[in-house]
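Memo to structure team: turn this sequence into structure tokens by end of day. - J.P.
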Amino acid sequence: MKGARPALRYAKAILNLAKEQGNETLVNDNMKLIVDTIAGSSDLETMLKSPVIKAVDKRNVLTALFGDKVDNIVKGLFNLLQENKRMVMLEPIAKQYSIIYDYHKSMQVAKVTTAVALTKELEDKIQAKIVALTGNSASIENIVNPEILGGFILRVGDVQYDASISNQFNELRREFDNSHYIPQI
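Reply from structure team:
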């Protein structure tokens, strides 16, 4: 991926600065806000990638958009990217920051595939299952896939736990296929 190494260097520098000031969690929340905002607005993404729009104008848009919602470190990042003419790297930097922040805090990301969106009660039960499987808690990312019919598929790192209805049907089908059951007529 083009620009991944510089994005990682920027993200590490921001994390170090945030750790010095003791607000790395706030900056992580800001970075997630930036990623979500860019992902939710194709116009903003296009504007940041456009070579026609000046870096100063891009920074002004970001400052107006995020204003007092973000920490001074993030505002400083806007200025630095404008000076270096690298505004297009804002989203990759924000994503990299979240990844290294999670690593720094020894947090894992658990991907949970369900047939319907998770409720708070279900998240708590899944968090308990994550602790039982891995020994650590993790942040939960919900993926909705109606094809699993019910239950859930949990993936944390290289561990996968499949408690879906479709998996149970497949196991039952394999059991019937492998048995030498001959129906009597």
